[in-house]
Amino acid sequence: MSVYEIVFSPVGGTKKVSDIFTKSFCTDSNYIDLTERKTDFREFEFSEDDICIVSVPSYGGRVPGVAVSRLEQIKGNKARTVLIVVYGNRAYEDTFTELQDVLERSGFSCIAAVAAVAEHSIMHQFATGRPDSQDEAEIASFAKKILSKMEQGTLPVSLKLPGNRPYREYGGIPIKPKSGKLCNQCGICADKCPVGAIPVNLPSETDYGKCISCMRCTAICPQNARNISKTLLTAGSMKMKKACSGHKINELFI
Questions:
Q1: Which among 128, 124, 88 has a CA at the least distance from the CA of 228?
Q2: Residues with Cβ within 8 Å of residue 171, at least 6 apart in sequence
């Protein structure tokens, strides 16, 4: 039996949650990075004896489209799978139902799920610092509970998760990072963009048709040259304030 940690995490919040869970679940695992656009995901094929931990962020209540397309290339072959959905203190809406459908179409067997809160990737005033120490302890306890039920053979045959079908519509958001005067054309952002929205030969530019507002370029730029419009950020923050207020809880589904 092998354990695989399969993660789409452009800015690190989802990976942090996934790492906490995985390290509590087992002592050794294999990492698969769904943000790597140069990887041929058709090469990954699991077996019924394997365990997969698939972690994605919720973008507008949906699974990021690029994560969907890459997961669809993988052959699950009935590998037992834990779904982890991470959201920025607003709501995850139909992310679970979509992720479950995608994974089951690819042959994975969904056995349990976790919803966890992480700091919002754009509006950092929401869920600031999460997952915190309390979250870490809770996520770790979820991993132990799932592992225990797995060993006892008491996990449900059919996993029922919250969400709707058809899924809610998501057309992206208008907040797109732009490059400023500090850009020295190093090309790190172009190399690491999950969707190739930044031209390799002109990394100060952005293809806004491809950009999914994942904010990886702003997070990894060593010059802090990539930023988003303060006007749009303020407007977006005001719009999201009510929905993102309060302390949302982490949830376990088994």
A1: 124
A2: none
Residue 67: φ, ψ to 5°: -70, -40
**Burial of residue 20 (number of CB atoms within 10 Å: 0-12, 13-18, 19+):** buried
Left (φ > 0), alpha (ψ -120 to 50) or beta: where does 112 sit?
beta
Q: For the chain, how many residues are written?
A: 254
Q: Pick from 176, 175, 189, 177: which is nearest to 223 by CA?
A: 189
> Phi and psi for 68 in degrees, rounded to 5?
-60, -50
Q: Give 59's DSSP letter.
A: B
Question: Which tokens belong to 61?
Answer: 């209540």
Averaged over successive runs of 10 residues, the pLDDT of the chain (254 residues) comes to: 96 98 97 98 97 98 98 98 98 98 98 98 96 98 97 89 97 91 95 97 94 97 94 91 93 97
- Collapsing DSSP to helix, strand or coil, 82 comes out as strand
Cα–Cα distance measured from residue 57 to residue 14, given in angstroms and rounded to the nearest whole number: 6
Residue 160 CA to residue 174 CA, distance in Å, equals 33
The residue type of 149 is K
The verdict on pTM exceeding 0.90 is: yes
Q: Are strands 251-253 and 109-117 parallel, antiparallel or unpaired?
A: antiparallel
- The partner residues of 251 in beta bridges, in order of sequence, read 115
List the Cα angle 69/70/74 in 5-degree steps. 115
Q: Are 191 and 222 in contact (CB under 8 A)?
A: no
Residues 6 or more apart whose CB falls under 8 angstroms from that of 191 comprise: 200
d(CA 168, CA 41): 27
